[in-house]
Amino acid sequence: MSESGMTSSPTANHYVSTAPFDPYAAELGGAAEGSVFNHASQLKLTWWRFKRHKPALFAGILLLFAYAMIVIVEFLAPYNVHTRDVDRIYAPPQSVHLFHDGSFVGPFVYGRTMTLDMDTLRRVYTDDKNRVEKLRFFCAGDSYRFWGMVDANVHLVCPAEGGSLFILGTDRLGRDVLSRILYGARISLTIGLLGVMTSFVLGIVIGGLAGYWGGWFDLIVQRIIEVLHSIPSIPLWLALAAIMPADWSPLVVYLGITFILGLLDWTGLARAVRSKLLALREEDYVLAAQMMGAGSSRIIGRHLIPGFMSHLIASATLTIPGMILGETTLSFLGLGLRPPITSWGVLLTEARSVNVIALYPWLLFPVVPVIVIILAFNFLGDGLRDAADPYK
């Protein structure tokens, strides 16, 4: 072949990467969207599913805000929880305004004058449009002890000097309803968490042992659960609450109510744990752990419970509303928390009379946060349960 007939082929440039080999690099950076989910952790998958549940996500944000609020409730409340204004007993809520006579003034309330109706002996409050009381922010007001340890008097918002600020009105002793609702949130919200922790421990321990051991222990546990379920909950609450002496300190009563609520709500969680362990105890990895000499507590705590912990957390979240309602019911009936402790149930005792509700309906305002928090926990529990379900 002649030299002129030969064609020169292009030279190929070869390159060898020195980076460590990653078998999933092409999948994670490629077009296969499902591969990202295939290699994500269980926690990340749960979070991605939970974000798609918008009501649950909003409820979680609301609950985070509520529990963050109770940390600084003394700062947020306009008044101290025990502050009384004897000149403004049963004062109706005051409206906050921004404009006065067509000009912007800023947040303010109108001053009030009180007259006594001699026919009905009711206090009648009227707004004085000539008295503009501007609100103060980050101001010095009623003194308090922050978490019972540090003396302070700084509040987020305060009334004008010599004025009043009762956004949700006052009660029969002239105490600010809004401030007492904020203080009551600390007790009502934490008693649900502590009660769930108690029932969580009892349910996991008793239900775990019943499901793993079976036999006579499982038989006894199931009969105890059936007996507890056969007793109406409210009479049982009343009987246990009546056991506590009336001379106990408020802290001991608080812990006693928490223990009672946790003692009565562990049965549902125990049955859920038992049913899971009855199926999981036959798995090969459980047999391998037994062959290696692992004890029952280690097998249950390290190998079985973590496999469905997300479901347990979701179930526990759904039981917190029951705890809050239990405390509210007992306190409303006068058998739970009692003054000077302030909770939402204690506040609702002011509205036990139909005549009081008809004359002073703002005393029912404490029921609003109860409804909102219970709905938020239900939405959050539904979202966590759906997100933790591996078959969805």
UniProtKB/TrEMBL annotation:
List this protein's GO terms for biological process: transmembrane transport
Q: Which family does it belong to?
A: Belongs to the binding-protein-dependent transport system permease family.
What GO CC terms are in its UniProt record?
A: plasma membrane
* InterPro entries recorded: MetI-like, MetI-like_sf, OppC_N
Q: Does the keyword Signal apply?
A: no
Membrane disposition: Multi-pass membrane protein
TM ranges are 56-77, 187-212, 224-245, 251-273, 312-337, 357-380
Coiled-coil regions listed in the entry: none
Which keywords, in A-to-Z order, does the entry hold? Membrane, Transmembrane, Transmembrane helix, Transport
Localization annotation: Cell membrane
Q: Which residues form the ABC transmembrane type-1 domain?
A: 185-381
Q: What is its main location?
A: membrane
Organism, per UniProt? Allorhizobium terrae
What is the protein name given in its UniProt record? ABC transporter permease
Q: Which domain of life is it from?
A: Bacteria
